[in-house]
Amino acid sequence: MEINKVELKPATRFVAPTGTYLISCGEEGDNIITVSAATLTCITPPMVGIAISLQRYSYSLIKDIGEFVLNVPDVSLLKAVDQCGMLSGKDIDKFDTTGLTPVKSSVVKPPMIAECPINIECRVRHRIELGSHDWFIAEIIAVKVREDFVSKDGKLNAHLLKPIVTIFGKYLSVGSKLVEHGHSQHTK
Ligand SMILES: Cc1cc2nc3c(=O)[nH]c(=O)nc-3n(C[C@H](O)[C@H](O)[C@H](O)COP(=O)(O)O)c2cc1C
User: What does the pLDDT read at residue 132?
Assistant: First the structure.
């Protein structure tokens, strides 16, 4: 089989698309940082990982307090997502600038962001030094989901969520549903 491919310089931007999340961190004078280097890392116990550059103002807030909230924004929050990814908390108050509302979390010290439909409270269990970024692996210890996104039997109505994904420096929305996981096992 002939496959024509071009060799490009190794870089993380080829790992795409990724989710786009707002991490709220800090206690007094809390901050928000946009991250796309974030993913689930373990199912039981439930864990996530986020890569934070040592140069970010948020870095020491996350490292010192050992807790953060991973807030899942939807497309209606695109401007705030970009602001939190372009501006630094060392210069401005990002809650003031974006108009996002900090709300007391149920367990962790950093506040959650009211406008985000999903708030995932996390406690750091491991920090791995990798180079430009540290990888914070954190256990999910509480989750809040906006009421209208949850069905009567407690399931997430995932199709209502309009998440933002990042690919090659651009924000994209997610397209229509294809099929359920496992569909290949039911078709001939
Ligand atoms: C879409 C997007 C994704 C980003 N992902 C990350 C990330 O995963 N890790 C990181 O350290 N910085 C990431 N950044 C950069 C930070 O969000 C940005 O430098 C921010 O201004 C840092 O804020 P702070 O100085 O208040 O911590 C991203 C920026 C954008 C716009």
Answer: 98
In ligand 1, which atom is closest to the CA atom of 32?
Answer: 26
Per-run averaged pLDDT (10 residues), the chain, 188 residues: 93 95 93 98 98 98 98 98 98 97 97 98 98 98 95 88 95 91 85
User: Measured from the CA of 87, which atom of ligand 1 is nearest?
Assistant: 21
Does a structural domain hold residue 176? no
What is the domain extent for residue 102? Answer: 17-40+49-62+76-127+134-168
pTM for this predicted structure: 0.96
Cα-to-centroid distance, 92 and ligand 1 (Å): 15
CA–centroid distance, residue 15 to ligand 1 (Å): 16
Cβ-Cβ contacts under 8 Å for 38 (sequence gap 6 or more): 18, 19, 21, 23, 48, 49, 50, 51, 70
Report if residue 80 sits inside a domain. yes
For residue 69, being part of any structural domain is answered with no
Specify the pLDDT at position 111. 97
How many angstroms is it from 144 CA to the middle of ligand 1?
24
Q: Give residue 187's pLDDT.
A: 65
Contact 148, 167 (CB under 8 A): no
First-to-last alpha carbon distance for the chain, in angstroms, is 26
Distance 32 CA to ligand 1 centre (A): 9
CATH number at residue 58: 2.30.110.10
